[in-house]
Specification:
disordered N terminus, Rossmann fold, Helicase, Ruva Protein, domain 3, 2 domains, alpha/beta, five-stranded parallel sheet, about 350 residues
Amino acid sequence: MSNEQQVSFDLDEAREHALALEKVVNEVVIGQENAIRLILIALHARGHVLLEGGVGVGKTTLLRAFSKALGGAFGRIEGSVDLMPNDLLYSAWVDGEGKPVIDPGPLITHGEETAVFFFNEINRARPQVQSLLLRAMAEYSAEAFGREYTFPHMVVFADRNAVEKEETFELSAAARDRFLFEISIDRPADTAIRRKLIFDPMFHNVDSLLADISEPLLDYKDLNALDRAIQNIIFVSEEIENYVVRLWDATWQPAQAGIEIEDIYIDDLVVAGASVRGMSAMIRAAKVSAWLENRDHVLPDDIHTVLLPALNHRVFLSPMYESRREKIMPLFVQALRDTVSTP
């Protein structure tokens, strides 16, 4: 068997495992099929994720389900105004004999076994804390106790407190750009699913719910190599390349691209469009989407699958429109799809 055939065989088997993982998570966290597919794409594209959604919509349950299905360790920290950078690295306390004890903090405690790290309400943490996390996201390492800790398999998920505005510190443009996707976790629209979540005791205890995932379905330590294989084997045609460049240009100059949105003066809408890093990350994600659909090439549908989550946090709106971002950006991305010619 040639190396190319071996890679193809491995990717087919890996796809089966990925889809099995998706199926199990959909059984545990119901009514979030789109978000689950996007998280699956992000994990295989090795990209960090911003989560949007209200309190109690199941974000932590969703991430714990993925972590358990991956077989790696799950780390978590809660954002607060008094959180300091060192709180990510160590915790100090006094034992029963009155002696000080210093333990590894949540970011480094699991080391190389970390598969998923969740920073809850990241915008309640000060910029210094955010900066330390962003450095760890970029370098997959941190220094503590006189040594370097590495977590090469870690994917970071963070969510923002979108309700309370006091004592919050919004992420900078550069910080937001570090995240591959911004994914919305919304209240399910289907009435039957909503009733099941409220009244079925099965969904009232998270630990018993996650007990249904009895063994890892995917080896988190294989994902980096798997991503490299996917990126090398999935083909992007010249027509798709040209289409993506036209989309990119339209994020910077929407008026020139003919973008129109009702009740929006398009010339004043955008301060800055998507970055080079953002567009290249979107292509990485589109390749994973094509692979999950058992194709060896990217189609416009793959671009459309990842367009909103990849651009939602990367197109920077003027101050007069920023407060309405949640409503404007889906309309903007839809206008991109409808206006920019598709191959």
